[in-house]
Amino acid sequence: MCTDSYFMEQAIAEAEKARAIGEVPIGAVVVLNEEIIGRGHNLRETTQQATTHAEVIAIEQACKKIGSWRLEDTTLYVTLEPCPMCSGAIILSRVKRVVYGARDPKAGCVGSLMNLLQDDRFNHQCEVTEGVLNERCSSLLTTFFRELRDKKKLLKQLRSDTD
């Protein structure tokens, strides 16, 4: 039997794909009966589309795989707490359970800013497990943004040296 850690490792592998192409390293997988039926990683910079978040891509792939928009018996694993848009997609696709790694204090809607996934005003709520492989998920993002800032500083310095 596969564990939450195993499937979060798969989401981390997706996040690494995003990092390799210069995207914010966030990855997601949708699991049904211990089988991954959808995978996704951030492609927002690549596509220049605001909606190409890891969760939305994984949900779309899972829906195609099973031939239904209802993902009622699935679990979505994602490296970062879902944002409002992704939380909406999770609710509307009827994902049963969400497991995430790192909290997102700026946009997280599964406990950080609010908890859309367990709001009983909606017609669907999700089970939520947070903090699975939190250190690894957090480190991916921290390292990515530190490297991005360092590159920007270097470019700025190079520009000022040539002036």
TrEMBL record:
Active site as annotated: E55
CDD domains assigned: nucleoside_deaminase
EC number: 3.5.4.33
Catalytic reaction equation(s): adenosine(34) in tRNA + H2O + H(+) = inosine(34) in tRNA + NH4(+)
Cofactor: Zn(2+)
Keyword Hydrolase: yes
Gene3D superfamilies: Cytidine Deaminase, domain 2
Note describing how the cofactor binds: Binds 1 zinc ion per subunit.
Domain CMP/dCMP-type deaminase: 2-111
Binding site for Zn(2+): H53, C83, C86
UniProt KW keywords: Hydrolase, Metal-binding, tRNA processing, Zinc
GO molecular function list: tRNA-specific adenosine-34 deaminase activity; zinc ion binding
Protein's GO biological process: tRNA wobble adenosine to inosine editing
Quaternary assembly: Homodimer.
Name this polypeptide is given: tRNA-specific adenosine deaminase
Gene symbol of the encoding locus: tadA
